[in-house]
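Q: What structure does this chain adopt?
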Amino acid sequence: MSSSTDASIEDADWLHLSDDEEIRWAGRPSRFTLAPSIAVAAVVVLVGGVFEVGLERLVGGGLPWPIAYAPLGVALVGIAIAVWAYADWLRLLYVLTDEEIYVKQGLVSRDVTQVRLDRVQNTAYDQSPRERLLGYGDVRVYTAGSSTEDVTFERIPNPDRVQNTLTDLLSDQSSQRPQERGGV
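A:
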């Protein structure tokens, strides 16, 4: 992760890092997850353009304004689909520090889930064949006192690396616990 990304994340008002806490990984869902929406948006914009050219050649000028501007409306719908998909991708951010897991959702409103690493009992990751081909998947985090996952990093790039980072952090945490209690 680049230092410019670190600085912008560390300065976020929703992230409460202690003095010695460090960000170990931060990310969003894979950009490949945007592809289907962008493809649909491109097709809709193309249909609007073809409709405009075809209408102009078929009828020429002098159409009532609702019909004359319909192709523009179709193209704007396509652009709206692309913007919506990007905003949906942008609203989700995962941060893994050496003490906590943060999941931030929202652009205007905000929902932040925060889980201490010392509560994490188990982790897992999974990938469908398509996700494996494109290099993304889900990492699931299970906490104490729960039989279902409490946090899921959805559609993130390199889920195996993220799970390995999390496993390393959990190992570090468990090796530090006896020392914090007075040494065993």
